Amino acid sequence: MAEHNTLTGASLHEPKGAATAAVGHIYVATGTGTGVWQVPATGLQMGWWDYNDAATAVTPIALTLADTYYPLTNDGAGPFTNLAYGLDGVTGIWNTVTNRFDFSGLALGATLDIRLDVTIVTAGANDNVTVGMHLAEGGTPYDLVILSEKGYKTAGSHHEILPLHLYIGDANTQLNGAYFEALCDGTGATVQVNGFFIRAITGG
C-alpha cells in the first residue's frame, strides 16, 4: 500500500465533507484541527429592496387625532415593488403582513439607507407634520425624527421624499421590529405611502 504522501492525481482524497458541500463554498480552517465549508468572504456586500404600496393610494392613513403618532403601512402590492436585488440570505427587509421592518437577517454593523416617499394632505392652514421611525419595538424602543414639525402654510397635498441613514449597532435594533410613523398638530390630515426604498450594506 502506498504511503499517503506519495499519492497523486485521482488517488488523492477530497477534503472532508466535499461530497455534500454546496456549490461555490470553500473549506476554511477553524483553528481547532478541523474546518468548515462556507461562502467565501468577499468584503462588503450590498443589496436593495423597493416596496411600492397600493392600499394607501385608495385609502390614505388618517391622522385622526392631533399630536398623535400613526404607523405608516406598506402592503408591497404596488406595480413598482422590486425585491429581486436584496442581500443573499435575506428574504426581505419589510414584512408586509406585520407592517414592520425586519432587520434580524442583517449582521451587526450593517448600514441602511432608506428613502421614504409619502404624500401628506393637510386639512388646515399652518398644520405642522412630524415623521419619524420607531425602532426596537418589543425591546428597548427609541425614535428617530426625519421630518420635524414641518409647517405647511396652506391646506392641500404635499409630496415629501425623506432620507434616513441607519446602522445596526446592537441586538436591540437588530432583533426587534421598526416602522415609520407620522403625526400632525391639527386634525384631518392624511398620508399616502408611495413607497420605501432600502439599501443595505454589510460586511462579507
- Structural category is mainly beta
- Major β-sheet, in short? 6 strands, antiparallel
Can you tell me the residue ranges where pLDDT is under 50 for at least 5 consecutive residues?
Answer: none
Rg of Cα set: 24 Å
Shape descriptor reads elongated
Mean pLDDT across all amino acids: 91
What distance separates the N and C termini? 44 Å
List the secondary-structure elements in sequence, H or E: EEEHEEEEEEEEEHEE
Helix content: under 10%
Per DSSP, the total helix count is: 2
**Total beta-strand segments:** 14
What percentage of the residues does DSSP assign to strands (E)? over 45%
Description:
The longest helix has 5 residues, at 171-175. It contains 2 helices and 14 strands. The chain has helices at residues 55-58, 171-175; strands at 26-29, 35-38, 44-52, 61-63, 70-71, 82-85, 94-95, 100-101, 111-122, 127-137, 142-152, 156-167, 177-184, 189-203. 4% of the residues lie in helices and 49% in strands. The mean pLDDT is 91. The strands form 4 sheets. Strands 3, 4, 6, 9, 12 and 14 form a 6-stranded antiparallel sheet that branches. Strand 1 and strand 2 (35-38) form a beta hairpin. With 204 residues, it is mainly beta.
